[in-house]
Specification:
Elements (H helix, E strand, L loop, with lengths): L2 H28 L4 H21 L5
Amino acid sequence: MPLWGFVLLVCGGLLAVGWLCDRFVSKRRSGRADPAASSLQQSYGETLMEQERKDFPNAP
């Protein structure tokens, strides 16, 4: 595969991932999301925040 084909593939993949994330977030805001998925995402977000507090204890 030529280099430009690989670049197009990567850019297309990033666009698709961004679009899917945007769809999921907007669906969650409107309250139509799967409650199990949103609670899973919320607990994952809390875990990330706890990890950031451990990594950067002096952050404001």
